[in-house]
Amino acid sequence: MTSSAESFSKETSTIKRASKTYDLVYIALFAVLITVCSWISIQTTVPFTLQTMGVFLAVSILGGKRGTLSVLVYILLGAIGLPVFSGFTGGIGILLGNTGGYIIGFLFSALFMWGFEHLFGNGRVIQLVSMLLGLLICYAFGTAWFMVVYSRGNGPVSLAAVLGWCVIPFILPDLAKIAVTLMIAPRIRKYAGIRPSA
Hints:
Elements: H1 2-39, E1 41-42, E2 48-49, H2 51-62, H3 64-79, H4 92-96, H5 100-120, H6 124-154, H7 159-166, H8 171-192
Antiparallel strand pairs: 1-2
């Protein structure tokens, strides 16, 4: 009887270790995915990257916890100087610069989506609402950050001006990224056999 209990305990411990290893691999993999998305620049009248889509994919495929950790790892890699941000840039100076708030805002978006998912589940409609609200949070934090940092170096700037520079041109592309994420995330999760974390 004792032998069976010990065997069961060992098997449980092995499964837990394997699960943690998979979690670490997924987190690292999606931090890399966000990095690659940030490097892809689509040239339009106002060029944009796929960073936000990388964030949405991480949270919708991995679930709130692992997805948020992927975003955090991505930001930390950039903070220590690795060229993971758009334009192959990195360093704490980027985060403390005018547009750094939008990068940090990704983390707040992911945290919100995690909490929203925890409360309401991860159905398609819930994910859509979660991504839309998460995007608004990123816009709000990034815009407030931009206004503070820009004003310190260049004098006062209006909210309308900052929205015109940093938000309005990106609304339609970001909505398109949300639509693509909603289409491909379930398929990736299914074919890769990834179960979303809580």
